[in-house]
Amino acid sequence: MSRFESKVVVVTGAAQGIGEAYARALAAEGASVVVADLNVEAGEKVAADIGGLFVRTDVSSAESAEALVEQVTAAYGGIDGLVNNAAIYGEMQFDLLISVDWDYYRKFMSVNMDGALVMTRAVWKSMQQRGGGSIVNQSSTAAYLYSGFYGLAKVGVNGLTQQLAHELGGMGIRVNAIAPGPTDTAATRNQAGDASKELVKNLAIKRMGQPEDMVGACLFLLSGESSWVTGQIIAVDGGQTFRG
Ligand code: NAI
């Protein structure tokens, strides 16, 4: 159980939910894990539990992302893996593209779409110095189902995944994404409530995903087992979507 021995992996949004499950699983397989989140109290608790490092990070800020790289390099010497999981989700407002408050829309996209790019721009040089690395972006099946601003940001994440795979592939840095289906986190319970029961009826596998269901794909994409896989978006969704 040491696939990630001597590897340093940054997981954004790891203070709770799916990111926390990634952080815990990576630590269990030997990685030095950096919990990068805005939520100091919960983030510090996860980091302490897994013997990792908490760095308060705002993924929408280039300064914050660069400060994280400095802090991680000082602590662990460099970065091998990055999981761009952070997003505004649980507290998200519902609105239409034609009426959403413009400042809210800009803020939302700066976290949910640009955040993956901001973090990648800060981290890739460190990966290059280590001889390569792996980046996993958190998309969503929402990208295939609707393009309200939440889905639209994930469409953007899918585009970033494809483009960055090409820009970074020559340096041995791979970029892939996971598209989770409806997953039972506190954020989803807050967002969807009883609507999830209806959603589940349309899945091939008739239950909500659990954060742990995402872990296998994430660790596969971060590990050498996927060394010739890049630019891909893997749906882990109980059969919610099908793309031929
Ligand atoms: P969550 O809301 O529980 O966790 C998100 C984390 O991101 C929180 O810890 C929050 O503090 C952090 N965060 C928010 N803004 C940030 C910022 N600017 N900088 C740094 N950290 C920030 O969400 P959950 O359910 O764990 O989802 C995680 C990811 O998976 C998100 O990208 C979400 O869009 C995606 N996803 C979730 C699904 C679900 O059903 N739960 C389905 C498909 C995708």
List keywords for this structure.
binds 1,4-dihydronicotinamide adenine dinucleotide; 15% strand; Rossmann fold; seven-stranded parallel beta sheet; 244 residues; alpha/beta; 48% helix; 7 strands; 10 helices
Tally the beta strands.
7
The mean pLDDT is 97
Helix content: 40-55%
In the CATH scheme, the class would be: Alpha Beta
Can you tell me the overall shape? globular
Could you describe the largest sheet, including whether it forms a barrel?
7 strands, parallel
Sequence of secondary-structure elements: EHEHEHEHHEHHEHHHE
* CATH level-four homologous superfamily name: NAD(P)-binding Rossmann-like Domain
Classify the beta-strand content into a percent band.
Answer: 15-25%
At the third CATH level, what is the topology name? Rossmann fold
GO molecular function: oxidoreductase activity
Organism: Nocardioides lianchengensis
Keywords: NAD, Oxidoreductase
Family: Belongs to the short-chain dehydrogenases/reductases (SDR) family.
